[in-house]
Amino acid sequence: VNTAMYNRTGTVGRLLPGMEAKLDPIPDMEGAGRLQVRGPNLMLGYLRATNPGVLEPQGDDWFDTGDIVAIDADGFIAIRGRAKRFAKIGGEMISLAAVEALASGLWPDNTHVCVALPDARKGESLVLVTDKDDADTAALAAYARAQGVADLWVPKALLVTRQIPILGSGKVDYAATQEMAHEARPLL
Asked: What distance in Å separates the CA atoms of residue 24 and residue 143, rounded to the nearest whole number?
């Protein structure tokens, strides 16, 4: 929590008193890791529609937040991304948000969502879902090289759609976009 007394721009603040944190390392992400927390204010478990009235413990006393973070020497936490918003390609972690930012740099007037699909050879492969009618992988690859971005970060497939799925909140519906790419995979 960032407070009036302890506040640092670019962070989400420090842990609340009584909380502990540890970072599970992530290959190729120096200085950051997957945030695990524990403390007296964590939930006891999940109530699921599939198991009504039963509290399912969340596991051991460490809770996996799903956040990829860096923690500085003063304890301030900077979020680098969400674990599910990374792809693992050939053992290297690729930020889907960074790929989307790359596409937005080339085509700023359009919406782009990068998803990862299973790949038997490399673990996962990147697909850029975009509403840019004339988007093509060659232009994106050339732009990436000009920006000094490794080829591994360039999607090998593009899925052009009229509209990116959006939630009622106005945010991208990542699950629906993932499903759209999965269904279109034979055509990519």
From this structure: 33
In sequence order, the β-bridge partners of residue 143 are: none
Of 33, 34, 41, nearest in space to 15 by CA:
41
Helix (H) or strand (E) holding 77: strand 77-82
Q: How far is CA 29 from CA 7, 26, 94, 187, in A?
A: 25, 6, 9, 33
Question: Cβ-count burial of 181 within 10 angstroms (0-12 exposed, 13-18 middle, 19+ buried)?
Answer: buried
Give 23-31's long-range contacts (Cβ < 8 A, gap of 24+).
23/69, 23/71, 24/64, 26/68, 26/86, 26/93, 27/91, 27/92, 27/93, 28/91, 28/92, 28/93, 29/68, 29/80, 29/93, 31/70
Q: In what order do the strands lie in the sheet with 77-82?
A: 20-25, 33-38, 63-71, 77-82
Q: What is the pTM of this model?
A: 0.69
Question: Hey, is 97 helix, strand or coil?
Answer: helix
164-178 pLDDT, tens per residue? Answer: 999 999 899 999 999
